[in-house]
Automatic annotation (TrEMBL), chains A, B, C, D:
This is Flavin-dependent thymidylate synthase. It catalyses: dUMP + (6R)-5,10-methylene-5,6,7,8-tetrahydrofolate + NADPH + H(+) = dTMP + (6S)-5,6,7,8-tetrahydrofolate + NADP(+). DUMP binds at residues 109-112, 120-124, 201, 228. Binds 4 FAD per tetramer. Each FAD binding site is formed by three monomers. It comes from the Bacteria. The gene is thyX. GO terms for molecular function: flavin adenine dinucleotide binding; NADPH binding; thymidylate synthase (FAD) activity; thymidylate synthase activity.
Length: 306, 306, 306, 306
């Protein structure tokens, strides 16, 4: 259960108190505020704050005093132009703050995106909760034989069962030991010192959940989403990226639309790929052998052309 | 006059339309929104948007679901603790967006603070306005004889008058020539091509005004303010920093208070300085000769101790 | 003349003293070290230092103890794979330091690339040289009628002549006035105070030359080069990007080759563009009207397909 | 044992092949190159590459063509001036690349310093080694009663023994299970699929060792060292910071000296602290009650004054 009744009460309290503001307001974003969107078995993504909307992107691009144009069409056209021509700074003028609960091994991938602000729950200061990511059996798969860093065929039911038995057993045992080490009460009820939290945490495996506040501008968020909402990203981070896409779509619909068209749904062709394409459009039957590409390049080129 | 009637009408329109939001609202910041605070002869600083408030700093530090504590005292104590112990990430959870009009030579210093988002008025796309910074006579001073990169004694009235004559004359002439070069109408009224704006702008001096949207998080803003609201900063950028300080003070009063106490009003002592201080507190009369410091270090050390 | 005899002597001295090192050495980069490659009328690009080579990219990608593979082919294959799949961190493991002399208006575009280290010649501390960028007549053009921020048709000889007359005249006059303002000697030879340099510089136009040390990692350099060695970039910055490309090509030939194929020579297609392409490859005659694209998008799409 | 014979052979090979270069060479850094300095029980820090030396800092600050001054004293004076007045950009002109082996929970603290380049060993692609950090008994301590995020009194021998038993046992068991899950051979010797590495790694605890290449400029490295070579930093990251200090001291002795004096050995006083100090120097006996400081502030103030 991702959110306790107390936490839900705090969320409800925040959602019940609209206040007047003169700032840009996105109705779509307001609907998401504070609500925890579940991800994986115990994780979530919550929108905590946002700055700006589609119009704010245009206002910044125009360095204008007011809202600039009143026309939504004009704004959308400008946003698409900016996205197409890699004008990134207007998109940086929007900012989003998320509260995310996620397994540690996902957090370790996520943090590699450096152009963001992060405040993580401190396991030096606080005690971590007993919550571990245990994959759904449908997600258990063997090492891929094509992609050296991905997963391939689904595991047999027997292997899956054994994996889940291990993950659950080790999570329970390491957490029990963590709790025992930091406890100031011995098994016999007598007082003991209890190991410092900054040390005890080292016994916890990478599927334990952590939490953080993560704040990022829209340009860098799009960069994150392009890499992590992609089929090559590990499933466990992709579902977070997908959940964030749903929020962004409602927050800045025009910018998200341009992103979906020009980045997520688009493709990059190499100079060799472009050359082949021109030959194909001129009627030539190009093969890997005559393409000048390596096998890997050709396979990916075919993938782009469907 | 920093803002035209049309621009003022746009500002007034934005200020007249409060809308409900569920986000954190800072009453102090709302009062500033969109208003142009004049700086120098034609410049200004305008608050265009903000994210977060004092409570949001604490909420992020605690990675909490709601507002966390209801006690303003607790929040202030936490904020002071975070500032004192260089916990910078909670301050990064607040963000501010400013519209600034400033001379180009000030913009060139300002932009060296890289951890910010900037959208500048494009002189490739648009025509720059005929507005130049002409210093107040009280600001005209000779090169400092102590600080190799500052100003010292005030200029004589005669020298001042000559400087102002030059600055005004060259501004007028270079702008006239700029306008002539880009004009698509010749002096005789006949059509001409007009030089591309991206080229014509090169004739304009560094005291012409430009404008930008500048967005930065509170931690990096404090870093900017510590360096630029400082007595060693050039006057023409310091007045912008001072104007921003007034806005920040109203937006996040507790965080600004901690910043003023621990950074702006504080001082850094070297290991040698600390050593001398201990000797002085023990009753010894320390001089530059017995301090182990260079003359420059000693002068600055004496400056700190008043 | 970009480099004085004294400066050339300093460069020659540095080039005459090879010293032993255990670090990775790039023969191609060594050939460029310290030499000033002329750009525009008075500018240059000089390689001052570099870290890493093609093998260092692979060594970092493999987190290896030694050089990793001895095979240059393997390294090149890995580098192409990394570039194709947007693995940017191994390219960040190479670093380059350049000394650049460039007009101020070019410096203002350049500095918008924030992920770099910069040390600029200080006009608060030092006196700027009397060197201005005066375009070659062949570069003088009218505002583009298609691209709102570029240049189009060449100016007529008459208009060109007038532009050059203005640029030269105003450069000379504003510099004379700059020199007069800071001078500590009056026109009559009597002592005067002289205006502080930090103020006097405001009279100088944007085509005056400045200098800086610029240090950047290879990933961010490629990003800079993709945007600035592009046909849409302003000519005056593109020639610097082109000069840097020549250095990088010799420094890390495999990485540069992958960059040239996958980024510089490649193209990005939108989701709509991909859809059209598939229809065209299937034999359909697609037009702008049936493409679902705007006129601007269609024009750019046709541009990609040649 | 931190380095295998094969790895040592690779290191020796690299150390045996000096090559000529025209770049700045630091003799002190050359002595460290490639050698693994042991840290904790299985970790290390190795200098893999460096850019620049003390003279390069001055050369950049002066934006000079050659080495600038020949005088080491002048250079040291300039470096101390730059450090004292927070001129950070010249220090950014030096860069260092380290290969580090470290426990995952240390890596998670370390990575929060975002202004650096990182290439970590990929547990999606490769199999992690069976190496865990097991603290020396002398390092096992209880949660601090003063500092909520540190450690206090040493554990009793009994509690220590139990902690070590847990850490060793869980490390062994979770690694055995990790190996079993990814194995393509069942316990009976029959072929099985083997769980994908990107999933199996989630069973491994935070004291397992990882490795990365870490590249950072000198300014940002000093910032890291100030926070992590500090008494408040967790012991397990502080020993890495200490090891890096030893390398930096030899690489750029003047810059390190200025850093040690002005940052590491110095102290920051608040406005209130400065005020108290002036009263104390004037002979007044100031107490916490009359200081205007909180108890925590006063305790830290007394700490600074010894």
């Amino acid at each position: 259960m991702p959110v306790t009744p107390d936490q839900q009460a705090e969320i409800d309290a925040l959602r019940s108190q609209p206040r007047p503001t003169l700032r840009a307001v996105s109705e779509g974003a307001e609907r998401h505020l504070y609500t925890a969107h579940p991800v994986l078995d115990h994780g979530f993504v919550r929108l905590v704050d946002y700055m700006g909307d589609d119009a704010a992107i245009c206002q910044a691009a125009r360095v204008s005093y007011g809202r600039g144009t009143k026309s939504v069409q004009n704004d959308e056209g400008l946003i698409r132009y900016l996205m197409r021509h890699w004008h990134s700074t207007p998109f940086e003028m929007c900012e989003i703050k998320l509260h995310v609960k996620l397994p540690v091994f996902v957090a370790r991938q996520w943090i590699r995106h450096r152009t963001a602000n992060v405040n993580e729950y401190s396991a030096r200061y606080s005690i971590l909760d007993r919550e571990f990511y245990i994959p759904d059996p449908s997600q258990l798969a063997a090492q891929s034989t094509i992609n050296n860093q991905g997963r391939g065929q689904a595991l047999t039911p027997d292997e899956s069962a054994r994996v889940l038995e291990i993950l659950k057993g080790d999570a329970a045992q390491t957490y029990d030991h963590y709790a025992e080490m930091i406890s100031e009460e011995g098994p016999d009820g007598a007082a003991k010192q209890g190991l410092a939290r900054e040390l005890a945490r080292m016994n916890l495996p990478a599927n334990i959940y952590t939490q953080w506040y993560w704040k990022v501008d829209l340009h860098n968020l799009f960069h994150f989403l392009r890499l992590r909402a992609d089929a090559h990203a590990q499933y466990e981070i992709r579902v977070y990226a997908d959940a964030i896409c749903e929020i962004v779509k409602d927050w800045v619909p025009a910018a998200y639309g341009a992103f979906a068209d020009y980045r997520l749904g688009g493709a990059v062709l190499s100079a060799k790929g472009l050359e082949c394409l021109k030959r194909m459009l001129a009627g030539e039957a190009v093969t890997q052998e005559t393409s000048g590409m390596s096998k890997g390049e050709w396979r990916e080129f075919e993938g782009v052309l469907g």
